[in-house]
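Model: You mentioned two targets. I'll fold them one after the other.
Researcher: Yes, keep them separate.
Model: Target one:
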Amino acid sequence: MYTIKEATLGGITDAIRAKTHRSEMIFGANIQGEIASIQTGWPSIHTVAGVSPDSSNFDGAMEAVAAAMSFWNAKASGTISFDYQDGYGPIKPTNSDGTGKLSNANGAGVMDCSSYMGLVLRGMDYLSSPFAQITGANQSYRPQDITASTAAWAEQYFDMQPETADITYTADKYKTGDGQCRIISASDMAAYYARMALTFWPGERDAKPGDICFFYKTLDDGSLKYPDRFMGISHVGMMINSEKFLNITEYPYSGNLIVTSVDARPPYLYARPLYGATVNGAAAELTENGVDLIPAMWAGIPQGSSTYNGVSFVLSGKAITIGGKASSGFAKNLISNSCPLHLLPGTYKLSGFVNGTGSNTVSATHSMWGLRVYNADTGEGIPGTTTSSNGANTASRTPVYDIGGGAVFTVTA
């Protein structure tokens, strides 16, 4: 029997914490398990070539953010509610017939964190996801029908894994329709991006919209709950700015699909996907006319038909038909300050929402109807230049309006 000095034991635990980037106290009984959990080599994952987190394309990142926000907006607008069930979702074949849960007994969409991020990173917004097809309670979905979109930023290689890949699920029921294994769990996603050298630790660089954030979970004795998973990772979300991330977890008071502050739940690890950089090139900022930043779902207006203050709305995707006459003035959110769109400094154009057919919109100072922009932190209107629907005149306005001719505004910080 050997006796280990306290200083030596302390050095061992300090080395473990430095290697794993975890800060919790390590109990003596857990040292062997902690050492075994240290990642000693690259996982065997099929990927496209990566260079570093700086090789990402920000246009693609913001498209991914818009896709992720569309699910939150679907919840906020009352179009759907979500039920968090760990280990369940339309991409996870947990039913006896090989299908996955789509809706619960109340008709709410069923998913966990990796189901949510798995859909988004495959290039799906809410309207193109299985959840938009829910018509009732206890519905199921064939996981094989979930495939990556053709968008350049979508992760095609999530569904192109060989049976020899170091991933969580390799049984036949988890495979694609053509027999490929899939990236499904949060830890698989972390391993996938780590294999491409796209991960980074908190403090190494500032998080940006579209970055993926990962978390681990420990038991009461301080040991990892999932020591056999890559780095023990058990949860995943997407950053909407440097301080907040979208994720789904068990929090029914706020509808389970929530925006969480990094102060309340600090991420363990980040990843910055390429987001189409292999096709469109690396870009740290948005390119001109590169991406539509408005999500396909709106926070304040549900899909389908609704009425408010005497005005009827028929919303189908982003196409809206409005009828009637308002009994009083009102505003509806396309994007909520509870789940805001983060814009880097630059100049932006708002256009295409208002058709400009009303006679009043030929004046750039028209205020009866339009789309306007506010600062989510302060509630103040953002100034800019409004162009009339016929393009004949402009006006400096706060908040800036799109009344049919477009509006231009600049974000400075």
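Model: Target two:
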Amino acid sequence: MICRFRQKTFAAAEMCCVSCSTVSLEIMCAVVFWDSKARKRGKDLEEGATGWENFWKITFPMISPLILVNSVYTIIDSFTSADNELMTLIKNTIFSEVKYGFGSAMAWIYFVLIAVIIAVVGGLISRKVFYTD
């Protein structure tokens, strides 16, 4: 039983690493999309500014709330996707092996892990979010 639990623990750690790389890729794809939208809105503000100044003073503040929302949605989506091995393991433990207690404990621990990651990422990103008055 202990060896089997260790295997599941290592699978969970491996899945967290894979999910984190997926999250960063999805966030970057969304930022590229929103960057093009923000550029259209900031055309009247960028007279006489360099590209670097345009990005940091116009584009980035305009897309910062979207980066926060997208980060939270991407984290939730990647950690709860159907092809996530840990979610499949939890589902199989509960329904196939009929171990409701163990599967529920795994699900709650996974939920708390996701909540902590969202809180940390949300806290870090929300420091840089710019809201217009």
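Researcher: Noted. Anything on target two?
Model: The mean pLDDT is 77.
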